[in-house]
Design goal:
This protein is of the alpha/beta class. It has one domain: 3-Layer(aba) Sandwich (Rossmann fold), CATH 3.40.50.720. It is 38% helix and 19% strand. A hairpin with a 4-residue loop joins strand 7 and strand 8.
């Protein structure tokens, strides 16, 4: 089996990739800032910080492929841009491992600064000497769940959401499986995007959340005058939707039902 390195290995997506790779019998390397991360037995841990490139030289030596999951919305220049440059430099010094990058659907149609940074990362990878594959996906279930929790107001029993928003939630298990499939093959460049199985309004998403978790908060849909800025502008845009690539299978409702006890408890 191949030796595969995962950056962002203890993050939401990265940890799922590590688990699936380990189950499939690959030699797995987890690159993380954590000194003693919780990883499956047999996974080799390489501690470092992608923002300054520490630990990458050892982590990339002798690998067949790299699944690049490291990202941080709050430090996109340091983590995504500078971090990817450090990763490419280290990988190129050790031959030509296949670099697989997970990106976001619709970023080439948006002026949102975070999306533009992700697009710049794609360009860095394209211009490297490494064989590469880039997969763009829609919005993770976990991400949408975290947003709803942020929007909930315990004092007023309301959930304030950006009006006019539609999303296409996808499960990280299916994204991880798609990334691993790419890592097990030859580099393919830009591959077809993958999106969640359904496009839902933000109201439908929150209504399902409340029904499954037996909550009864009032949903307030607000426009730019209440929820302003480029973040919410990008959220309201349909450019992030890919209805012709709704190829995943796990629905938002199924994701929630699988986690009812944890979410309620």
């Amino acid at each position: 089996m191949s030796t595969i390195l995962i950056t962002g290995a203890t993050g939401t997506l990265g940890s799922e990739v590590v688990q699936q790779l380990h189950t499939r019998g690959h030699h797995v390397r987890a690159y993380t800032r954590q000194v003693q991360p919780a990883v499956p037995m047999g996974v080799e841990v390489f501690q470092g910080d992608i923002r300054d490139g520490s630990g990458l030289d050892k982590a990339t030596k002798g690998v067949d492929a790299i699944i690049h999951c490291a990202t941080f919305f709050g430090e996109v220049n340091a983590t995504d841009l500078a971090g990817t440059s450090h990763l490419i430099e280290a990988a190129q010094a050790h031959g030509a491992p296949h670099l697989i990058y997970v990106s976001i659907a619709g970023i080439d149609h948006s002026q949102f600064s975070y999306f533009q940074a992700k697009l710049a990362v794609e360009r860095l990878i394209e211009q490297s000497t490494l064989p590469w594959s880039i997969l763009r996906v829609t919005q993770f279930h976990h991400y949408i769940l975290s947003l709803i929790k942020d929007w909930e107001d315990e004092q007023t029993s309301t959930i304030t959401v950006p009006a006019g928003t539609r999303l296409q939630p996808i499960d990280i298990r299916e994204v991880a499986a798609a990334l691993i499939e790419l890592a097990e093959q030859e580099a393919a460049g830009h591959v077809p995007d993958i999106g969640g199985p359904e496009i839902l309004t933000i109201e439908e998403i929150v209504e399902t959340y409340q029904r499954v978790l037996n909550k009864k908060r009032v949903i307030r849909a607000e426009g730019p005058e209440v929820l302003p800025g480029e973040y919410y502008d990008a959220f309201r845009s349909d450019e992030k939707l890919i209805p012709d690539r709704a190829v995943a299978h796990i629905t938002w409702e199924r994701f929630l039902q699988e986690r009812v006890e944890k979410l309620v408890g």
